[in-house]
């Protein structure tokens, strides 16, 4: 059984750790509120782009673009895929990183010819230790998603897609549906199905003129759309990460309270046993001295 000093040292250590987990919980809650505010600002822009693309389809129904699935009867899109995987920079966020990486491994198992693009130090280290090749690792901190970084990622992915190196582009991120539910989602970025876009029907009799051409306009709109999607996914993943870390730190705090309660009981028992032993020894010594006096008499 450990001594009272050892138990007391462990109690102090757990209390120090509990202070750290409480601080991390408060920091994550603050970051989560800010990230949710940023996410609410980006969604109207994202939805407006969807409406504009749908308007182009309604105006020019026979528009052709490499960013859309080929018409019915054309050969299937088989070949190399690219997947952008969004993870955190560090752990202590419950199963957040594990769920994303598990979904990435499942995708690689279904389609081995997939090139990985990774955001987040945790994902980089995981694939490095697992000896899974990474096409490119974006050295952006996952803690600070910005539209500028989303645009740079979009340019890299579109460069490979436009060159014909990839037949499909995917993004794997964590969607925070609520404070209690967050799940990894693998979404196809390109090519699109026309049914992916929905908006109110355009007013009858309204015509639009596209300069220099509808294909050129669609090209620029699609680029902005993909950038907005990536930025939305970055912010959404960041929200899910902070929420998962809050849950993990809250659970760690509760476990620390349980451990402190158990150690306090154990410490009191050891201390009481030590006091009892000291009293017994004093009483035994007193009796021995009394016997010596009696024997001398």
Q: Strand order across the biggest sheet?
A: 3-2-1-4-5
CATH topology of the domain at 55-245: Pyruvate Kinase, Chain: A, domain 1
**Which value, in Å, is the CA radius of gyration?**
31 Å
Written as H for each helix and E for each strand, in order along the chain, the element string is: HEHEHEHEEH
> In angstroms, what separates the terminal alpha carbons?
44 Å
Mean model confidence by pLDDT: 79
**What is the helical fraction, as a range of percent?**
55-70%
Count of runs of 4 or more consecutive helical residues: 5
Low-confidence stretches: none
Going by CATH, the architecture of the domain at 55-245 would be: 3-Layer(aba) Sandwich
Q: Give the overall shape.
A: elongated
User: CATH-wise, what's the superfamily of the domain at 55-245?
Assistant: ATP synthase, F1 complex, gamma subunit
Please state the structural category. Answer: alpha/beta
């Amino acid at each position: 059984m450990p001594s009272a000093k050892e138990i007391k040292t462990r109690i102090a250590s757990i209390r120090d750790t509990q202070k750290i987990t409480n601080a991390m919980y408060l920091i994550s809650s603050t970051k989560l509120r800010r990230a949710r505010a940023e996410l609410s600002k980006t969604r109207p822009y994202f939805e407006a782009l969807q409406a504009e693309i749908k308007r182009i389809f309604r105006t020019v129904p026979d528009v052709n673009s490499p960013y859309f699935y080929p018409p019915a009867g054309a050969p299937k899109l088989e070949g190399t895929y690219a997947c952008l995987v969004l993870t955190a920079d560090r752990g202590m966020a419950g199963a957040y990183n594990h769920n994303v990486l598990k979904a990435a491994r499942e995708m690689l198992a279904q389609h081995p010819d997939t090139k990985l693009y990774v955001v987040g130090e945790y994902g980089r280290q995981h694939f490095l230790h697992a000896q899974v090749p990474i096409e490119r690792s974006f050295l952006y901190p996952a803690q600070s998603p910005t539209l500028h970084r989303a645009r740079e990622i979009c340019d890299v992915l579109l460069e490979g897609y436009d060159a014909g190196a990839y037949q499909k582009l995917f993004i794997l991120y964590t969607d925070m549906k609520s404070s209690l539910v967050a799940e990894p989602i693998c979404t196809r970025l390109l090519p699109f199905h026309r049914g992916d876009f929905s908006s109110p029907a355009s007013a009858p009799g309204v015509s639009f003129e596209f300069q220099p051409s509808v294909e050129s306009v669609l090209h620029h709109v699609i680029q902005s759309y993909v950038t907005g999607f990536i930025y939305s996914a970055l912010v959404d993943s960041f929200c899910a990460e902070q929420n998962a870390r809050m849950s993990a730190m809250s659970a760690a705090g509760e476990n620390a309270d349980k451990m402190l309660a158990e150690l306090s009981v154990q410490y009191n028992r050891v201390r009481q046993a030590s006091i009892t032993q000291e009293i017994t020894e004093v009483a035994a010594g007193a009796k021995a001295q009394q016997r010596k006096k009696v024997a001398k008499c």
